[in-house]
What we know:
Oligomer: single chain
Distance between the termini: 56 Å
Order of helices and strands: HHHHHEEEHEHEHEHEHEHEHEEHEHEEEE
Radius of gyration: 23 Å
Structural class: alpha/beta
Protein name: Gamma-glutamyl phosphate reductase
Strand order of the largest sheet: 10-9-11-8-7-12-13
Strand content: 15-25%
Number of helices: 14
Helix content: 40-55%
Subcellular location: Cytoplasm
Pfam families: Aldedh
CATH class of the largest domain: Alpha Beta
Number of domains: 2
CATH architecture of the largest domain: 3-Layer(aba) Sandwich
Shape: globular
Amino acid sequence: MTDLIQLGKQAKAASFTLGLMDTKTKNGLLVYMAEQLEAHTVEILKANQKDLAAASDHGISETMLDRLRLTEERILAMADGIRQVAALDDPIGEVEKMWKNEDGLMIGKQRVPLGVIGIIYESRPNVTTDAASLCFKSGNAVILRGGKEAFHSNQVLVSVLQKALEEKGHSPFAIQFVNDTSRETAQKLMTLNGYLDVLIPRGGANLIKTVLNTATVPVIETGTGNCHVYIDKDAQLKMATDIIVNAKCQRPSVCNSAETLLIHRDVAEEFLPVIEQALKEYNVELRADEQALAIFQDAIPAVESDWETEFLDYILAVKVVDSLDEAITHINTYNTKHSESIISDNYFATQQFLQQVDAAAVYANASTRFTDGFVFGFGAEIGISTQKLHARGPMGLAELTSTKYIVYGDGQYRQ
């Protein structure tokens, strides 16, 4: 079993040094990590093949295998992601504002690292490099605990990053990996008080629920994505079709893909056959309410659980609604506060939707697939936070920091 206390001690020591590292040094190390990632492509792909073979033997679906699979192109993209993080502005040390109070004290609010971040995640090896680079740039040491599906891939990726740090004379303990995937070790990581400053789960609903119920260290909840697209009565048919196909089918295994389609009664008869035909090309299974079922040629009845399920597959729940208000109520009842979209040419309808839907990202006439740190200009992301405290939406560098007050005096004491 991994000695988590030792990892914690090493991470804590590394975090003090990393928190004081200047931006130029951090950026140079990140660029070197990216270069080393590319240089070890063959080794990484071999490890990934072991993970893919094991996953296939365990009957994992093709969509989930896609989350796990690495290619030369994806490794290059991971390396480019690290370079993009290096190119971002460094938030550490930034003084947001400074003012003089009535006692003559100069009070400033300065951005600082969180310290040591633990991340528990599943399946996707690119999370390893994204998380490591973001934590490193923001001055945080990180302890990574990936899922068993990507164990060999993650192990090699972290090894490459650690060796890059060592080769440049820096502590490899700024980036560490939990070398076993047992549930017992994961639970101990969730209670590593005194070493972890924050824990971030990234994965499916069961993982996030387990972390929230078990952790004694502070948790930033990154959400599952039960995302909706609502077609208003004033929507453009072509636009709506293109957006739904993209939101559902471009990459159904990710958290910002659409899981439920809501459509206004006034356009259901016209729209649903068109959408059904477009989705048929991708073999999307439609689970429809009674009204939609009567219009579709090939669908199955939806059950209550379908409205709250993150399918992560070529499955779409479909419901006909009588009004925009009903659509908003349905979304706020069943969504996971991730990403929601309205398709409409009606300005007032879009404004109502944007203001009343409770989610981290709300779109008008665009696909939910855009909820992403790269797309938003943050570089790589730690995850999509669906909570409201500290961080919400794609979590970039700024969301991995805290603040402290720096106060300058010239002999003042409080009367």
